[in-house]
Design goal:
By secondary structure, the chain is of the alpha+beta class. It folds into two domains: 4-103, N-terminal domain of the delta subunit of the F1F0-ATP synthase (Peroxidase, domain 1, Orthogonal Bundle), CATH 1.10.520.20; 106-177, Dihydrodipicolinate Reductase, domain 2, CATH 3.30.360. 58% of the residues lie in helices and 15% in strands. The protein has eight helices and four strands. The chain has helices at residues 4-21, 24-40, 42-49, 55-66, 72-83, 90-104, 120-131, 165-177, and strands at 107-114, 137-144, 151-156, 159-164. Strands 2-1-3-4 form a four-stranded mixed β-sheet, sandwiched between helices. Strand 3 and strand 4 (159-164) form a beta hairpin. The longest helix has 18 residues, at 4-21. The protein is elongated, with a radius of gyration of 22 Å.
Amino acid sequence: MKGTRAAARYAKSFIDLALEQGTLEKAYTDMKYISDVCKANHDLVSFLKSPIIKTDKKQSVLKAVFEGKLDKVTDAYIHLITDKKREMFLPQIAEEFINQYKEKKQILTAVVTTANGIDDTTRKQILSLVKGTGNNEVVLEEKINKDIIGGFIIRVGDKQVDASIARKLNNLRRDFKENPFVKQS
């Protein structure tokens, strides 16, 4: 994806700045907010990516959207990004900042996908299973996908456990297609 390297560099520099200023936690909260706003508002992202709209107009819109909701360091950083004409990368910078923050704080994100959601007992079991013997903090994201029919899918980083009914049915279909037992006449 274009801009990923630039987003990673800008996120890293913002983490360094926030550490230097002693506002890392506030910066993390701000970047989560920016990420959520960008995910919820596709028009804003399209606006930021538009090469036709002038930088000063983008700065005034960003100021109006985020005024009073961000720390002064984050606000100044966003202003700097728009001055450098990198505002199109703001959603990616926010996501990359969140990822780098979690890596720095040793926070694992476990994504659990189920057909109906999970209860508190299951949630605690999953958290203890993912945490294992490590010292990492675990954040659990829950997703609901009716297509998996039942069971669950857990993803932690690049590892995934798929214990869904849909997966088992697909495996059965494949096994029946590859049936080595051919009826002989």
